[in-house]
Amino acid sequence: MFVSFEGIDGSGKTTQAHMLASTLERYGGDVVLTREPGGTLLGEQVRELVLHGDHVAPWAEAALYAAARAQHVDQLIRPALGRGATVVCDRYLDSSVAYQGGGRGLGLETVLELNLTVVGGLVPDRTFLVEVRAETAAARVGATGDRIERDGIALWSRVASAYRELAERFPERYVVLDGEREVDAIAGEVLDHLR
After folding, report:
1. For the segment 137-156, what is each residue's pLDDT rounded down to a tens digit?
2. What is the spatial distance between Cα 4 and Cα 17, in angstroms, rounded to a whole number?
3. What are phi and psi of 22, to 5 degrees?
């Protein structure tokens, strides 16, 4: 099974990804917890460059994320799925569609097409979208975030809108969660959906 967690920065998606992976490991399964950008050496280098470097043009940002994702799928995700592992991914291609397609104004369709191409059409079996208000996210992230987090509430509002559009477009794999609730209650809902 391939599960991804999505949401604006500060939504709690990383916490939920870690909680799910820990729970599944306690059941004795082969679980791979990974993140984007990241998961491979190339992905981590792209993460550092894009999140902590100087200005990156929107299309350069989208292309770098796509390159890291292609490597991630080839080197880690497909092999793990091939051996029967469950992959839990903190962000996947929907992040690029929401952030670069919606947030940066490159167009959801164009960024989605690029990313589906580089991953050979691989999409998660289930995508959990953890929704919070932009104000909640800003309070959680604070003023010391990375380059994208510092772009703030205006960007996050556009990204949140793009995520809602994706959830409506792909209801067969999207589950929308209220990220304003208690962490354990959200984790319980995730498990209920996967059962």
Report:
1. 777 776 555 545 556 677 88
2. 8
3. -65, -45
Q: pLDDT at position 153, please?
A: 74
Cis previous bond, 124, omega within 30: no
The structure's pTM equals: 0.93
Q: Is the dihedral of CA 105, 17, 39, 86 positive or negative?
A: negative
As a whole number of angstroms, the distance between CA 99 and CA 80 comes to 27
94 touches 163 (CB < 8 A): yes
C-alpha–C-alpha distance, residues 25 and 151, integer Å:
36
Nearest-CA neighbor of 81 among 39, 26, 40, 125?
125
pLDDT of residue 69: 98
Upstream peptide bond of 37 is cis (omega within 30 degrees of 0): yes
Please report which confidence band the pLDDT of residue 169 belongs to, taking 50, 70 and 90 as the band edges: very high
Contacts of 66 (CB under 8 A, 6+ apart): 96, 114, 115, 118
